[in-house]
Amino acid sequence: MLSTTMITRAIAGVLLGLISSRAPGQTTQSQVKSQGEVPVTSVTLDDGSKSSTQPAQVEQTSITGGGELFPDATPANVLKVTEKVFPAVVRIDVTQEVYENGKKANRRGIGSGTIFDAQGHILTNYHVAGRGVEFFVTLANKERVKAKLIGDDHWTDLAVIQLDMDEIKSKGVSFTYADFGTSTGLVPGQDVIAIGTPFGLARTLTLGVVSNTERTFYPEKQDIDDYETGEFSNWIQMDTPIAPGNSGGPLVDLNAKIVGVNTRGMRGQALNFAIPIDAAKPVIDAILESAADGKKGRVTRGYLGIDFRPLQDLESFYSIDINKGALISTVDKNSPAAAAGLKPQDILLELNGAPTNVRFPEEISAVKQRIASLAIGQDVSIKYRRGQEEKTATLKVEKLESKVGEEQEFKQWGLSVRDITRALAQEQRFDDDKGVIVTSVTPGFSAALAEIEPGDVVRKIDGDEVLDLEAFAAAYDKAVKAGETQVLLDIKRGRGVQSKVMKVEKK
Amino acid sequence: MITTRNRIVLALAVCASIAGGCAIDAKPAAKPGAAVVVTPSSLLQQVRPSLVCVRYTFDSEMGRRELEGAGMVLSENGLIAFTSAIVPMAIPDEQMINFKIVIPPGVEGADEVEIDATFLGRDDRADIAFVKPKADTCKWIALKPAVQPIDVGDTIYSVGLLPKSSGYSAYARQSTVSAKLRGPVKLILTSGNLTAIGSPVFNKAGEFVGVVPEQEGQTPMLNPGENEMASLVNPPVFIISVSELMPAIQDPPTAPNSRKTPWMGVVQMTGLKKEVAEFYGLKGQPGVQIGDVIPGAAADKAGLKGGEIITMVNGQPLERGDTPEELPMILGRLVAKMNVGDPLKLTVITKRGEAPKDVTLNLLERPAPASTAARFFAEDLGYTVRDMVFQDRYARHIDDNAGGLVVTFVKPQGSAQAGGLQRNDVITKINQTDVTNVQPFKDVYEAFRKATPKESVVLEVLRGTDTQVLRIQPPQ
After folding, report:
1. Tens digit of pLDDT for each residue in A303-312?
2. pLDDT at A255 over 70
3. What is the pLDDT of residues A355-405, one digit of tens each?
4. Rounded to an integer, what distance in angstroms lies between the CA atom of residue A131 and that of residue B378?
5. CB–CB of A317 and B456 under 8 A?
6. Local structure of B393: helix, strand or coil
7. Could you identify which of A140, A190, A418, B338 might form a hypothetical disulfide with A87, taking C-beta atoms 3.0 to 4.6 angstroms apart as the criterion?
8. Which residue of A has its CA nearest to B398?
9. What does the pLDDT read at residue B178?
10. What phi and psi, each to the nearest 5 degrees, are found at residue A492?
11. Please, are residues A205 and A194 in contact by the beta-carbon 8 Å criterion?
12. Closest Cα to residue A97, out of A134, A51, A143?
């Protein structure tokens, strides 16, 4: 018999992109207030050419009884989707840059995406387009156009790419874009349509219903190639058939509005998951705002260093009212929370005066999102309870870091290394974040022959301390320039120090 | 289960074997050193009374199981040695109960004789363990170790016991010494065809010169439950010289953990590869690099640091292994054979190009292993905890003064498992009370369970670098 955990892991484990085989995770909150999306009305490009049409708003089909209205799959509504969204869905052929066997390597894959504005911006998944270096987009009219990465965010598994507008112009190609709706107010049982390019097949439309609007995989944590993901929102679960290659494509309501991004699923199990569009919107905004020429757009998030568990069934143990407070489980070492003296089993009552209530697993991501949206460097006041005592504290918000640091290849030595971030040092219980961590080695080359292994932390090169990736690169350049044939690396493996001598071939 | 093929092999083996008998009926062993040439048949007669089965009950949370292995009588009052693979360190001392010495059924059809025994503990100098009879009821015939060199080409005989399913019949096999290997334990390669693990090995003169140690692909058990005839189909190939066992045989433990194991207080050592050794100016000389020095232990007191390289021990170069990986084990064995309080002179290189320096440290006692830690099986909710030992703290970076208990067992489908408790979690709080060690935890736990049998127990545990708050709900 499968345990619940195993089932959760199995469900959470399948990404839909053809690109990545690793598991991420995601979450959203039905309580999130609708931001009132801003519909794009202008479709005229800078040069005056028309690239898209914005059909008139169509009245929703009303359903009476539940108080909520949602459109269902009438022929008229289906037609709306095929007319408005179907043409905005694209196939994305991606070349990602990854480090394997001590070298930069290309990984090719196919995913889906939706053009969402007149500037040719396309929303897709991080696991499809993140870290991508080359993109080819196949439009609805079967034209293939180059695109570039605007920004990505592994925490939410989202990425934005943009069509090469020069190429669009010079080729005289037109495209259509679709509108974002809202994921707030989605109802289980409501008809939804998924569109994408499963297995690279040209745009494919499948119909299903919303199964659950606040799916969480708690307590499982997910990652995409080691990159953390899925902590700041719940998922829309739907039975709409999707397959690898559907990743990044839209989940659409029968009003022809995008309500989610198809991201993962269990093939053949009618259990599929989409990122709610309301969780995606602020990410898209942040990416577009921060992206500049040559600089990737990214989302900056606040960090306090606490994790939670639901209070359900523990209220009487802590003598606390039902649905009040969030139980703190982990307090990261050297975090703002640790500095303020917070401890596991403290109950967080308020954050900047507003209550933080986590009774159920489904409520965790909303509180995490609130912390993430705090401005870096800002003081945040909290109220918490320890035992029967209520306390207050002020914490300085720090920047949320990934445990995955910057990576680089060093060809002559046959290895790739990553910067050690504070988050990685914390997770691996390193004494500090000095040094770099080996991510892969090239079989048969210097590092591999010296028995250097992935996971080793390089602390010194030829006796000089290596503080970070920059220092490692400098030492590498110096050694290569000097034509050194022997390089001494002092590494840490586990808690032990080891010396490794690399023999380097002269070039 | 004995397969048809195994039956045939077994039948062949039994042809050459004679059932064992109670030592009381046995003839005295041949004098060691006698310049006679034995035959397998006479050797079998001579050795059979000195072979017994050691049996005990592994009393774990999941139930009881009898484990058995081959033992050799080493003294007239019944000191019996057997491979410590029968009593692995993973089994807590208190879960090994009811030790027995079983004398196999006699040739004359006598029943097997079971004698209550006391477990004397393991000796990590030779990976052997000892039992002795509780009462003096039997006259024992001891094997007399003869430290005769064994050389390549020598004919040897091993004498072993067949598994329980074959009535522990004694059997003999002939082999030839093929090669003598280097390493932490000096294995001797033979042409194979040896009797099972724990068998004594004799030279042509019938002198007890070696034993068959634990080795890959072999079970040390006489009642393995499956593949009973594995050692007959694929016989062991390695032996070790009896000289390797001598320190343990001459000074056997008197009670479990009675021998204080000496310890340098360094961990994560690596044997230097040739390139690294040469880089440090060690031409053709083995070296061992210290990975980490444990604060407060012998090496730390002597000022040794992680990264330093040990080149000589007590003025002698380190013995060479077959691979650099063996060097730390060779050094470890060397230290294990010394005693707590002994001075140990190490010659170490701190920096490339600097002259080696001599450092003398006084060996301290190795921290207690997990098998000796106090435990508590909370049977009602289905989990076991034990005191933390050095290894637990070191692996998890937990301070010496921080309290906590290691979860060693979580019963499948039990309340603790349902509440999310996992093996290797470290419990730091119970119902918001700090946990120190087993006894106070047990007191708090039992009092709480008795007073409020339906109330949940709330545990704070460390799992990796995360803290978890777990609610263990008793059956309602």
Report:
1. 999 999 999 9
2. yes
3. 999 999 999 999 999 999 999 999 999 999 999 999 999 999 999 999 999
4. 51
5. yes
6. helix
7. A140
8. A429
9. 97
10. -115, 125
11. yes
12. A134
- Pick the residue from chain A with its C-alpha nearest to B269: A496
Phi, then psi, of A41 in degrees rounded to 5: -110, -30
Measured CA to CA, the distance from residue B127 to residue A402 in angstroms comes to 47
CA B275 – CA A127 distance, rounded (Å):
42
Angle at B336 between CA B333 and CA B340, to 5 degrees: 160
DSSP category for residue A22: S
Task: Give the length of chain B.
Answer: 476
Shortest Cα distance from B283 to chain A (angstroms)? 15
Pair of tokens at residue B192: 């194979």
Report which secondary-structure segment, H or E, holds A428.
helix A422-428
- Do A161 and A129 contact (CB within 8 A), yes or no? yes
Both structure tokens of B172:
């003999």
Closest residue by Cα to residue A246 from A201, A213, A288: A201
Query: What is the complex's ipTM, to 2 decimals?
Result: 0.84
State how far the Cα of B211 lies from the Cα of A20, in Å rounded to an integer: 54
Phi, psi values for residue A349, rounded to 5°: -100, -40
Residue B427: strand pairing partners: B405, B461
- Are A310 and A364 a contacting pair, CB within 8 Å? yes
3-state DSSP of B70-97? EEEECCCCCCEEEEHHHCCCCCCHHHEE
Q: Dig out the tokens for B163 from the structure.
A: 């598994």
Please give the torsion angle defined by the CA atoms of residues B270, B272, B276 and B280, in that order, rounded to the nearest 10 degrees.
Answer: 100
Scan for tokens 């911006």, then name that residue: A121
Query: Which of A254, A295, A253, A261 is CA-nearest to residue A278?
Result: A261
Place of tokens 């059997």: B171
Integer Rg of chain B from CA: 26
Q: What is the DSSP letter of B27?
A: P
Q: In this complex, do A497 and B471 lie within 8 Å of one another by their Cβ atoms?
A: no
pLDDT tens for residues B132-180? 999 988 889 999 999 888 999 999 999 999 999 888 999 999 999 999 9
Query: Cα B357–B360–B364 angle (5° rounding)?
Result: 145
Name the residue type at position A470. E
Q: Cis bond leading into B324, ω under 30°? A: no
Nearest CA in chain B to A343: B467
Residue type present at position A477: D
Closest approach of A348 to chain B, Cα-based (Å): 15
Spell out the residues 6+ positions from residue A100 whose beta carbon is closer than 8 angstroms to its own.
Answer: A440
- Put simply, the answer to whether B471 touches A314 (Cβ < 8 Å) is yes
Instruction: Give me A398's structure tokens.
Output: 């720090």
Q: What is the DSSP string of A262-327?
A: EEEEETTTTEEEEEEHHHHHHHHHHHHHH-BTTB-B----EE--EEEE--TTTTTTTT--TT--EE
